[in-house]
Amino acid sequence: MSVVLFAGIALIVAVGYAGACWVRPFTACKRCTGTGIAPPRLWERLLRRTTRPRALHGRPDCRRCTGTGLRLRIGRRAFNHFRRLRRQATR
Fold first, then answer.
1. Are 28 and 73 in contact (CB under 8 A)?
2. What 8-state DSSP symbol labels residue 59?
3. Tens digit of pLDDT for each residue in 13-25?
4. DSSP 9-20
5. Contact of 32 with 64, CB cutoff 8 Å
6. Which helix (H) or strand (E) holds 70?
7. 48 and which of 25, 37, 52, 64 could share a cystine (Cβ 3.0–4.6 Å)?
């Protein structure tokens, strides 16, 4: 009984995550928390405490999300990969 219950719960979670990847394929970048601006480095944080103002002037774009603040979910990335493999196999 417990194995069937566990399998049912796992199936519900998997279908729910697949639905979330289908409806909202993008999520906020974890590195820049969705701002698109590169997070400050350690020495920038230390200098800001003493001399620099809190302005974000001259800050480069986040490298992980290329400045958009969004990234593809892991499930959507896997879905796109398998779809691409299937298309290449049928050509």
1. no
2. P
3. 999 999 999 999 9
4. HHHHHHHHHHHH
5. yes
6. strand 70-72
7. 52
